[in-house]
Amino acid sequence: MKAGSTWRLALRVARRDALRAKGRSALVVAMIALPIVGAVGADLAVRSGNLSVADKLERGIGQADASYELTGSDPIAQDFEGKWTTLDNGASSEEISADAPEVLWETPEELIALAEEVLPEGSSALFERTDWQRATTAHGVDDAEVVETDPGHPLAEGKRTLLDGEWPENDDEVVASSEFLSGSGLSLGDEVTVNAWGEPLDEGTTFTLVGEYEAPFELDVSELIVRPGAMNDTANGWAVGKLLVDVPGDTGVDWELTERANEAGFVVVSRELHLNPPSESVLAPEVLALDSGSGVDGTGVAVAVVAVSLVVLEVCLLAGPAFAVGARRSRRQLGLVGANGGERRQMRAIMLASGVVLGAMAAVIGLIGGIALVMLVKPLLEGQMGTRFGSWDFRWLELGGIAAFAVLIGLMAAVIPAYNAARTPVLASLTGRRGVRHSSRVLPLVGGCMLLFGTSLALLGGLLLGETIPVAAGAVIAELGLVACTPMLVGAFGRLARWLPLTPRLALRDAARNRGRTAPAVAAVLAAVAGTVAVATVTVSDEAKMRSEYQAQLPDGNAALMAYDADGATTLDQARTSAERELRVNERQDLAKAVPGPLNCETTDDGWSTWTYCGDVGPLPADGAECPAYTEDADAMAPEDRRAALTSPLCDGGGGIVGGISEPVLILEPEALALLGLDEPGAAEALAAGKALVAHEDLLDGPDDVRLGAFTKEAEEYDDLGLPVDAPDREVTLPAHVLEDGDDAPLVIITPEMATEAGFAPLDRGTVYDLDETPGESAQQAVDADIEMLGGNVTFRVEDGYKEKNSLALLVLALFATVITIGAAGIATGLAQADAAADLSTLSAVGATPRLRRALSGLQCGLIAAMGVLLGAVSGLIPAVGLRLVEHRADLDWWQPRWDAGETALPRPEMFIELPWMTFLQLIVVVPLVAWLLATLLTRSRVPLARRIG
């Protein structure tokens, strides 16, 4: 028979067999279709989420020919998409300066006048100014991006979508984004007051909310839009000024016009340059340097390949036993084919055709399901991405490739059952006898070698090379090796049956005897659990590292209400009243910053911000405040001496953080030391006796004295201790007591009495509280809202230790592994029942009760889950430890040369490897129990008697 005729016959037989065994066929189709649904959905979501050039332009510049944005630097050079760099110092559009840019314009008319010099004659422009402001809400105040423009102008069409109400038509009207409205608690018709940072809210501009909108490109932006000029204030250096320009004619803004705008400091986003870009030869070398690099992420590619490989392995492991049982259920049919002259290749073709047929069904279902899933969850995906999809983008060639991949998976899953079915003697197929089957001796040997090699590659690659690619490759090789060893390990587990009672002994021996269906199910559980254990181990190890590095600013359970500056100090009393209304306070202690007395604060306004300065007080060490590790003679120092110097506050900036602030000299009562966690033996007594507490002996002026300097004038340059480099206006010497562990303490602590005697004034900085109980989220939000309403720079903090952020992720991973484990174990149990129907009938015939049969099925399912979970836990530790070694190697590569050169005093980095015990408990204990219970409850009590053969 020709090959074509053979495959036509095989496909016809496979189709009929699939329709006869609907349950088994549906099971295989579902297993193959599930990853296809995910792949199709991901492809469609990514393609539809990647906007076309036309969609990007509409959302960026509306219907305008171009946008002109003033950078504040000239000349500049840009590329065709609007990425730019200056031509003098190399600062690019991706860099943010620490200083406010120069104010070049203050009104819309002034910005338009600046642009008229570079715009074609006859152009029209729509003004758009963006700045961060403060806006009132139903709860207090919040940050908002305020845009001054006309959103209903024809040039702005497409940039924003009006959802409710109308666009503003008057200067006292405002529209808000959905994100701002959802967070503010406001609705249309309410009033909102907007003002710049640092200004009283009662001096702001009040608007009426008349509309709600969304920006398709930024769904999560908290934004307000008012008419141009409605803010009634001048533009500061941080405001972004932009013009949407419509030029006469059909040529748009070409490269010549763009270069002319660049010379004046305008960056241009042009529709013409996006749709019809010229040759890159016209770009400046500085612009070309911005895009250097291959853009290929080798690690990402490696991880993607590993993920796809494991998905294919998982599906094949789950579907393979179903095909194997299908081959056994069809063995009489295959025997008839052989008895009538059928060749082995024809019997192989029939089984392989089953994989093709079921894979094709899965491909169709996966395509339809993936497309339907994306359409169903489109709003959720858009919310996660923060942008609306463009038009649906069906790449049928890619989708067809995914469908072909489903057929390939089905074919791969049927290969081994087809091979075994073709080798079965015709007489054994007709009589139903299976004969004696021996396990392969080569496969465990190969698997053991792969396990050792993969483990060595993962661990040594992480430790010696510090690369993730060998870790990923080694983990996959080791896992495949362990999968190859699974039949042998299942047989080893079967030897434990002799010590078990009757029912578990039968279950374990049946699992060991039928390794063809047990081993793939165990391996499938192994693969799912290994990935979960690997991710969980890395996650909890990262958490352990961050927990060890976390520095508490207060004792656990205490709270602090602190003012950042002198302006915030004016609202502290009101903030204290609000906080104490919500908190259950056991003890309260106030803190103050020492400043020169009498208290005399001066406010400075440089045109774009204001601040208040009250003077500084700080320690004056005997040899000056210069760090020896940073002097000109530091290169001659021995590395160990330089490392010792770096531990001094003269080098690290000194001063521990207390409740979010750091001050050189803090004024407090001795009783407050306990609330700050500084209650080492003898400290409170020394402070009560009139001695200043000093954080480090390098700050002393003499053996037992500390010299404090008072500075009344604001300086332009400060030293390492945060004090002016100029000579102090006055000096005071106080007796001192050096703290044994002052790393987390202020540089100097004195009492109010000592401050008064020294001629210093207290500047209120806040309060620390000893709380009766940790406040809940609602109480903290209430305090925060009251503080925001006060308008000062005040912060409220409750010290409740390091908060783990990944507990939810670990729970999701454990649930995922639970579902896969129970599913794989349930599949194997169902196949065992179908495969061992005669054995169950025999048990029933000899008097076995329904309870015994249910217990047997439950134990079969639980044992498969337990074996897979145990092996998966071991397998998952290999990549986890390898990845931790990679991170540790990177830390060492950074630390070692700096330690040898004396450039850091940090201790040697530790390698944190912590086991996810809760995940182990869920997987090793809970999952097998759940699998056993479900299988026991779902197993039918009645077993039909099998037809006698012969």
From TrEMBL:
The keyword Hydrolase does not apply. Residues 322-425 form the ABC3 transporter permease C-terminal domain. GO terms for molecular function: transmembrane transporter activity. It holds the Pfam family FtsX. Keywords: Cell membrane, Membrane, Transmembrane, Transmembrane helix. The chain crosses the membrane at residues 301-328, 349-376, 396-421, 442-465, 471-497, 518-540, 808-832, 861-886, 917-938. It is found in: Cell membrane. It is a multi-pass membrane protein. InterPro entries: ABC3_permease_C, Macrolide_Exporter_MacB. GO terms for cellular component: plasma membrane. Belongs to the ABC-4 integral membrane protein family. This is Putative ABC transport system permease protein.
